Amino acid sequence: MASTTPSTSFGSETAELPAYEIKEAADYRHDAKVADASDDEKAINVEDAFVKESWNNPPANKYRLCSSFALFTAASLFLSCFGVLIPEFEKDYHLSHITVSLITVGLFVGAVLTAATTNKTHLSLGRCGTGVIAGLCMGLGSLLVAIHPPWPAIPVMVFLAGYGIAALDPVASAWVGSLHHATGFLGMLQGFFGIGSTIAPLIANGMIEHEIPYYKFFYVPFALSMFGSLGFLISFWGENGAKYIRDTSSSKKSGVDQTKEILKNKVSWILGLFVLVNWGAEGIISNWTVVYLTDARGGSSSNASIVNSMFWLSYTIGRFVLVWVVGVIPRKWRGKGPMSFFISVSLILDLMFWLLPTFAGSSVAACLLGFFCGPLYPLILSMLTKLLPPHLHVGAIAIGSALGSAGSSVFPIAAGALGEYKGISMIHPLILGIYVLELVLWYCLPASSSKSMSAGRHG
């Protein structure tokens, strides 16, 4: 599908490259030159030849961003309420801990189904169709939970919403990753997810304290999902399958063929494993911070809950601030340094969270930890869009999300088992080990240059 351009010079190398590769290479080598259409040997700058879309060019992009932000907030409202509401589900439906864990299973199965189907939906329905289906699934799942059905319907509705949430991540993240200043906007997109994660427990707690039926909380993500879906439909109208194929220079391979191509690519596996352990660490912190602060540091449940909320607030601020700062650093000075710094600081702060003997000291360390670990996922998404060709972005993000869902389910369970056997303080060596593994995986990735992009594509 990609057309070739005249001979392109990168230093001493000359190669015939597809248009999308030239466009990507322009982000890294501003001095690259191509001959113009008349072949008169007058070189022009590659970046001038291929201008990326920006947040306001075309004008519809402003509304596309707003609808994506709304849907991401709705997704996080749905996902982040269960820490508070699971005890209410248990009391209401008379469930055991094992039975209520089917909620987590439903979310994971939805993510796996998305990974298996998202390439096909993009090739046939494009960004518009895929995004609207994602929003409608989120909204319908939320609505059906809100009307308080019998228990067997709850995991099914959670699965439906989980499919929508998992489908939303690749369609929105891949598009935002194609914009000018993509790193900063990916941070904003994931920052809106953090906003929902911060306010969902507060809203749910407030409803319980005011004796409002807990299941009515789900009307909130339902309403926001419907609003975002309508905005997505209007602003992305015309972004069908044919347009998606043209924009990504994708061949008309089946979704299965593209998935096989992703699975053969070592870069996509490294990125996927990074997401798996990253979401796993966040799941451990989210699920066990309150227990750790109450059992190991003698804090009250209410104060520990406030610390947990402050962790998510600082996590959100970190995504908005630090990712944008990284995005404006000149590329030649950026390299792998910022990400390595954030992971290293997160490791040190978790060590302080573990070893400081007072509730106040551990609480401050936990809040600062959120600020520095928040940017990790947006930055790995940004790297994915640089190392893989455009037609693999959606599938790679979907597979990463499925692995991340597995990590956020399995790692907290493993941490709980370890804490029960060895003491709750032992969750921290597990988190520290994850951060060390993240550093190793980060340095296993090739450098973000035109050469490494090509190498990454072909495994």
UniProtKB/TrEMBL annotation:
PANTHER family: BYPASS OF STOP CODON PROTEIN 6
Keyword Nuclease among UniProt keywords: no
One GO molecular-function entry: transmembrane transporter activity
GO cellular component assignments: endomembrane system; membrane
Name of the protein this chain belongs to: MFS general substrate transporter
Annotated localization: Endomembrane system
Every Major facilitator superfamily (MFS) profile domain range: 62-450
